[in-house]
Design goal:
By secondary structure, this protein is α+β, with helices and mostly antiparallel strands. About 25% of the residues lie in helices and about 30% in strands.
């Protein structure tokens, strides 16, 4: 028996429709004014730390366009926040909080002041509650009224991707690490101009080597997102980790550059703001793995993803950053790292909000020496040993912190 999809079609009068759009976000040295082209139902503001941001939820309005910042605001991002509401995120140049927030008398604009504060005061504000704001009662949008509905049958949901086997000790209390071999199937990833080696083959060999070392340690359980040459949509990769309730997610890749002298490993953690142009370029290239013949199989929205991350991922990102630095330290004796090894970018594969995740670029497949190292059994064992040592110390620290 098919499920039923309910299509709600609103036949509303102009007085009751919520059809407003954010028409403008005007930023001065310290004042911010958000203007609407129709009445809104209300708003709330809250603080987000690491990186420092101010979020503004507005009910009864649709998002406008992202804008460049000014004054104390580096950039302005907008996106949908549920049905009939929008979120505006202000990326801050320095810690600041909202003060003197008020709607205009006609309810069609909201103005507030950004007051600079210390880092500690900003962090306290980030832990505090939202500030609720209401437009004047006589100029407040009403929720839409449903006039009729139509139901149509739809087919059954597609079954979820089968979960991989968990290897290692049969002890559910031990941490679970999910290793993701980048690319696969019809997507070869980067190809070495020296040997013709494909990234998808190198990452699978590395993932297996890391798995074997971790399992042999007897201290963690391990699962691979793919154990053979198959294609996975990016969301399926971190989705596997989430469904398995993984404690750590490591996506293994090999970089490529036009400059064949570029070499060395790097570790990426998630940020909507890339640490440099190269990080932004790499993320853009890797995120295209979902696109086949012009169709985005992942169907994710970067604006929506960014907004969702703002809510739930701050602590997860901090844990991932700690592990990234630990991995570089523990593997440095066996693996050559770039001078700035820990980098930040908006990789789709790292966007699990509740699983600490890193993307390990193990070297440059476009560099002759790196390519030979990554394709060799000896090189793969060295990388696996560095990951194993970092993983063991990472979870040992977590256990110690819980015991305090």
């Amino acid at each position: 028996m098919g499920l039923a999809l309910v299509l709600l079609t609103a036949m509303l009068s102009p007085a009751t429709a919520i059809a407003g759009t954010i028409g403008a976000v005007e930023i001065g040295d310290s004042d911010v004014t958000v203007r609407f082209d129709d009445l809104v139902a209300g708003a709330s503001t809250f603080i987000l730390a690491g990186p420092d941001r101010i979020a503004l939820d507005i009910a009864g309005v649709q998002p406008g366009i992202a804008l460049e910042g000014a004054g104390m605001v580096r950039a302005v991002r907008q996106g949908r926040q549920g049905a009939g509401s929008a979120r505006v995120v202000l990326d801050l140049v320095q810690p600041a909080i909202v003060s003197n927030a008020r709607f205009a008398a006609d309810g069609r604009s909201l103005t507030f002041r950004l007051r600079p504060v210390s880092a500690s005061e900003f962090e306290r504000a980030a832990r505090g509650p939202r500030t609720e704001l209401q437009p004047p009662a006589q100029f407040r949008a009403k929720p839409p009224e449903k006039r009729y509905s139509v139901t149509v049958p739809i087919g059954k949901a597609k079954p979820a991707l089968p979960l991989p086997a968990i290897e290692g000790p049969e002890n559910n209390r031990l941490p679970l690490v999910v290793i993701d071999a980048g690319h696969g199937g019809h997507d070869p990833g980067a190809i070495s101009p020296h040997s013709g080696k494909r990234e998808k083959d190198i990452t699978l060999a590395l993932a297996r080597a890391i798995r074997d070392d971790l399992v042999a340690s007897g201290r963690v359980r391990v699962a691979l997102t793919r154990a053979d040459d198959r294609y996975l949509v990016l969301e399926e990769r971190y989705g596997i980790a989430r469904r398995l309730k993984a404690d750590l997610f490591i996506s293994v890749h090999a970089d490529a550059a036009e400059n064949q002298e570029a070499s060395g490993a790097s570790v990426y953690t998630l940020s909507e703001v890339a640490s440099d142009r190269e990080a932004a370029r790499l993320a853009a290239r890797e995120n295209k793995a979902n696109i086949i013949n012009g169709v985005d199989l992942g169907a994710h929205s970067s604006d929506v993803s960014s907004i969702l991350l703002d809510l739930t991922q701050r602590e997860t990102m901090n844990v991932a950053s700690d592990f990234a630095r630990l991995l570089q330290r523990e593997a440095a004796n066996d693996v050559k790292f770039r001078s700035t090894a820990h980098r930040f970018a908006s990789f789709v594969v790292l966007k699990a909000p509740d699983t600490p995740s890193i993307l390990f670029e193990t070297g440059f497949i476009s560099n002759k020496d790196d390519s030979e190292f990554l394709a060799s059994g000896a090189g793969q064992k060295k990388i696996a040993r560095g990951v194993r040592d970092a993983v063991q110390i990472h979870f040992a620290r977590q256990i110690a912190s819980l015991g305090r």
